[in-house]
């Protein structure tokens, strides 16, 4: 898509064809495809796809990029870059500005501050799973993974619950499209919905996080409408799509790995470890950055304005960091992964995400201890992009 000729500063031996939105290597399995790419290409290379950009698969280089915002900026998070892309506070900010907003928001996302949400997560999980009782099977993404995070997050953030299906459609449309123009159209529709929600809460605030942010003191002032829109957009897309994909990868693994599933069923107290291990094995976002100045990095010449895509899924399955990395092992001594980000941009919502995942896995194994992939349905083609995922997962629920 939108392939371009390589600029003069790109060495020919660093040019590799790779389309992170729709690459043939990813068509059967995302993680297998990324591992194949890692064996075929240098640890940092340039692809002509999507306007042309750098791709980094080497774990050490990824870590350096994500921890050096002075050289690799978060201000542009679109590949190809778009000047009209929605601003996402604090994700699309660099230090010191990033830290100011992050400190404001951390107050509402710390583990102790969200502990009261456990009862609501339990409620929504039980409600969603109750609809599967006595059914022989289900399409897990539609029945569970794309619904549960929506109900939890929309209640937490203060979005109207009667619009859950509409909002789910907008998020899926944005992330599933490989057309940058269509993705931007979905983003603008989301912004339109946010404008209505935030305007209503400014008139009549409640107890949800958006209302609290509207009333918060930030550097001796209130957040502007534009700042609230930016924060709301990030919360919207992060809260509704990432947990969906984590749930789907996790349940798919349990359906395939009978020994792991039985061990976890017999030891439900180890579900938090399972969440971390499954996130390590099946990390699914990609992280873009923009080069801020001309420099030599990782053996290549980069120019200011170059875009860089970090394949963070490969960190968790790096054999040097996680021996026997493809095995999901509850007894692993140490887990290294960037599934929830790293450094200053570690995911603010990770505690809520873990709460949802732990609750689902525990409840699912109580209700459906014996399940498997339904062989009567062909496996769905995975999707690439900023958040890689599995659009469908058909399961057989054995009595």
Automatic annotation (TrEMBL):
Keywords, in A-Z order: Heme, Iron, Metal-binding, Monooxygenase, Oxidoreductase
Domain of life assignment: Bacteria
InterPro entries with a match to the protein in the record: Cyt_P450, Cyt_P450_B, Cyt_P450_CS, Cyt_P450_sf
Pfam families registered for this protein in UniProt: p450
Gene3D superfamilies: Cytochrome P450
Single GO molecular function: oxidoreductase activity, acting on paired donors, with incorporation or reduction of molecular oxygen
Membership in a protein family: Belongs to the cytochrome P450 family.
Protein name (record): Cytochrome P450
Organism: Hyphomonas oceanitis SCH89
């Amino acid at each position: 898509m939108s392939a371009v000729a390589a600029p003069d500063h790109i060495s020919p031996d660093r040019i590799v064809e790779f389309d992170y939105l729709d690459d043939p290597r990813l068509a059967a399995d995302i993680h297998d495809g990324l591992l194949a790419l890692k064996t075929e290409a240098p640890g940092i290379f340039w692809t002509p796809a999507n306007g042309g950009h750098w791709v980094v698969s080497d774990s050490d280089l990824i870590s350096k990029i994500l921890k050096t915002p002075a050289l690799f900026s978060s201000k542009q998070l679109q590949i190809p870059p778009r000047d009209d892309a929605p601003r996402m506070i604090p994700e699309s900010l660099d230090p010191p500005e990033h830290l100011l907003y992050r400190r404001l928001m951390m107050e509402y996302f710390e583990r102790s501050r969200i502990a009261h949400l456990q009862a609501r997560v339990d409620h929504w999980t039980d409600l969603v799973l109750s609809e599967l009782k006595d059914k022989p099977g289900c399409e897990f993404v539609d029945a569970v993974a794309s619904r549960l995070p929506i109900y939890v997050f929309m209640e937490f953030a203060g979005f109207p619950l009667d619009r859950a299906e509409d909002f789910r459609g907008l998020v899926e449309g944005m992330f599933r499209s490989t057309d940058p123009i269509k993705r931007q159209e979905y983003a603008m529709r989301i912004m339109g919905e946010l404008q209505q929600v935030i305007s209503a809460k400014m008139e009549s605030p409640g107890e949800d996080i958006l209302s609290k942010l509207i009333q918060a003191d930030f550097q001796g002032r209130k957040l502007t409408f534009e700042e609230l829109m930016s924060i709301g957009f990030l919360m919207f897309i992060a809260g509704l799509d990432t947990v969906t994909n984590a749930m789907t990868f996790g349940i798919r693994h349990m359906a395939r790995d009978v020994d792991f599933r039985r061990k976890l069923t017999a030891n439900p107290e180890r579900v938090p470890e399972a969440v971390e291990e499954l996130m390590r094995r099946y990390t699914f976002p990609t992280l873009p950055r923009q080069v801020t100045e001309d420099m030599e990095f990782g053996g290549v010449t980069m120019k200011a304005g170059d875009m860089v895509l970090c394949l963070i899924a490969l960190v968790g399955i790096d054999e040097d960091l996680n021996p026997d990395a493809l095995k999901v092992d509850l007894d692993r001594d140490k887990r290294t992964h960037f599934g929830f980000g790293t450094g200053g941009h570690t995911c603010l919502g990770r505690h809520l995400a873990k709460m949802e995942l732990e609750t689902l896995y525990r409840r699912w194994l109580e209700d459906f201890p014996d399940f498997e992939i339904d062989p009567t349905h062909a496996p769905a083609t995975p999707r690439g992009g900023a958040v890689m995922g599995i659009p469908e997962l058909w399961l057989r629920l054995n009595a």
